[in-house]
Amino acid sequence: LNALMEMFGHLNFTVLGFPCNQFGLQSPGKVNHEMLNILKYVRPGGGFVPKFPVFSKVEVNGLNEDPLFTFLKESLPFVNPVIGDIKKFYWSPIKVNDIRWNFEKFLITANGMPFKRFKEYVTMVIESEFKLTLFQEQKT
């Protein structure tokens, strides 16, 4: 994600990070500075510092999901009916459009419209989609 910020940060683009502990309980920190220390020293570690805003932990699925993620999931439904191993999910109810795992991404246009949804590890695909989105917005 830092690489995307380096490539496109000078344009009308930013990455927003929303920690969530609903996937295998992999984000146990309670407050934001704990999350930043986990990123810096544990995962990915090596002194990693995000070049984008990292917000407080939220729930992205279930009864207590943040309204932003309700909007994103309704706007960009997931097309794969296979949800995954529900033993690793910590929310209820589980719905077909739920975010499936950490680092799932949503590309939002500059005017705030959801454009594309990506699985967790697709940085190169996001790069090409962002270029396409930017080109389309410049034409209008």
From TrEMBL:
InterPro entries: Glutathione_peroxidase, GPX_CS, Thioredoxin-like_sf. The keyword tRNA-binding does not apply. Pfam families: GSHPx. Signal peptide: none annotated. GO terms for biological process: response to oxidative stress. One of its GO terms (molecular function) is glutathione peroxidase activity. Keywords: Oxidoreductase, Peroxidase. Belongs to the glutathione peroxidase family. This is Glutathione peroxidase. The lineage of its organism: Eukaryota, Metazoa, Chordata, Craniata, Vertebrata.
